[in-house]
Amino acid sequence: MASHQSYGSRRMVAELSNRGITAGRFKVRRLMRQAGLKPVWKRKFIHTTDSKHDLPIAANVLARQFNPAAPNKAYVSDITYGTPSQRSPPALG
């Protein structure tokens, strides 16, 4: 059965039942674990950026000149995309 790793024990029991094979969910779960079969859940796609807007875009004041003439004249930052669980802790130091 080509399931692309989407069949868990409940769905597997239903498919086996459709094929005339009787098996309990916990037995199927145990056999799947022994065989190293793990279902992969499909996550909902999360939009993180909206580029289609009429809002003003910040001017590029530094124009990639990252060496200011005096201290405290220019500050830079960065954006990290992804959900908090996907990000690694910030490097402090």
Automatic annotation (TrEMBL):
It comes from the Bacteria. Pfam families: HTH_21. Residues 3-45 form the HTH-like domain. This is HTH-like domain-containing protein. PANTHER family: TRANSPOSASE INSF FOR INSERTION SEQUENCE IS3B-RELATED, TRANSPOSASE INSO FOR INSERTION SEQUENCE ELEMENT IS911B-RELATED.
